[in-house]
Amino acid sequence: MDLIKTLFGGGGRSGEGSEKDIARSGSPKKRLTLARDSQTSKEILYYLAENDPDPKVRRAVAENAAMPVQVSPVLATDRDQDVRLALAGRLVDLLPGMSQDKQSQLYAYVVQALGTLALDEVLKIRVALSSTLKDHAHTPPKIAGQLARDVEREVSEPILRFCAALSDDDLIGILKSHPASWVVEAVAGRDMVSEAVSDAVIETDDVPGGAVLIDNEGAQISESLLHYIVQKARTLPEWQKPMAGRKSLPVSVVKELAEFVDASVRDILMTREDFDEQMTEEIAAIFRRRIEYASEEGADEKTVEQRLREKIEAGMLGEDAISDALAMRDNDFVFAAIAYLGQTDLQKVAAVFDTGAPKSIVALCWHAGLSMRLALRLQKDIGHVKPKELLYPKGGEDYPLTEDQLKWQVGFLGLK
Question: Is residue 305 part of a domain?
Answer without folding.
Answer: yes
